[in-house]
Amino acid sequence: MGNKHVTTENHIEQLYKFTREHFVYHYDVQTELVDHLANDIEQICEEKSHLTFEQARDVSFKKFGVFGFMNVVEQKQKAMNKRYWKILWRFVKEWFTLPKVIITSLIFIIFFTVLQSIYAEEIIFSSILILVIVDLYYLFKSRGKKKKKKKKKEKTFLLESMIGETRNGFSVLVFINVFNIINLSDTNFETMSIYLLSLAAIFATLMCIVFYITAFVMPSKAEELLAETYPEYKMI
Amino acid sequence: MTAVIIQINKYTIKPQKNMGNQKLFKGSLQTIILKLLAQNDKMYGYEITQKVKELTKGELKITEGALYPALHKLEADGLLDVEVAKIGNRLRKYYKLTEHGTKETANKLAEMQEFLKTMQHLVNPKFSLE
Q1: What is the torsional sign of CA A148, A150, A153, A155?
Q2: Which of A165, A175, A166 lies closest to A132, judged by CA?
Q3: CB-based contact A7 B90, cutoff 8 Å
Q4: Is B59 near chain A, with CB under 8 Å?
Q5: pTM of the model
């Protein structure tokens, strides 16, 4: 097939497909591996010109060891996780500076007051329920979008899918856990000291902020965050 | 009584040259990457593997499975910055040191020197200068 020493457009396409077949699903990770493989294949073909493109590709892939790209993907995920939390932290900090700190303190005061009322548990449980329902609704909606995107074979970046998905687990799990903790530990807000109550209110406030950021702020700023993280984002 | 036959599969184990060396190098991977980037402004993954091979005359081969995780970690820690350029028909990701990365490189190199000195004392006390 043509000149073996220069990887053609077609070869590059094939290599993207190859990485996908080896469990690399995100475009940013794929791109780096494709460039690496292409470089190595060119080198291999130069040294051993009798090899076909596919053979050279397999030689190159073997160098990644028995687990193939798994280690690279896994570590990339870890590194991106760190980045995700850094971004999240950046947004959380905003809520403790003027003018947003006013809203933050307002949420805190509301929680603090509610916790002291005799209906504390009922109010908290019903708000958790409402939040979970709202969250599930959005989750459902975003699933549909994702499917469409998959059908269209659009490129997905790792951070992009994290912005969309990390919160999936977050909201429902955290809320259900809170529900369980309160229920199982026989927490009685009426007998709690004022310090514990304020601690609970602080925790609840923080949860609300994190929930709001992961569910609404970050997805709405996804484009910006992706462009900031990936220089290639604007190139494709 | 049944005789238990234990079958031992004989694998031919090829003594791999430099295997021990590779292990020794592994812990220094980050320092090696940082040092190379300090000298070369910006580099891409494959270039780094080739450069190391060239500089060490093939003695040290950075494995693909170790290089990229190390690069991604350094990037997440804010030591490296990335640039992407279109080379021919593909995109290439270049890494370069951030300001923080440059400072850290100096630290890591100093650490490495210290380590080498200590090893020298341990392994070869005769030749130590003290």
Answers
A1: positive
A2: A175
A3: yes
A4: no
A5: 0.78
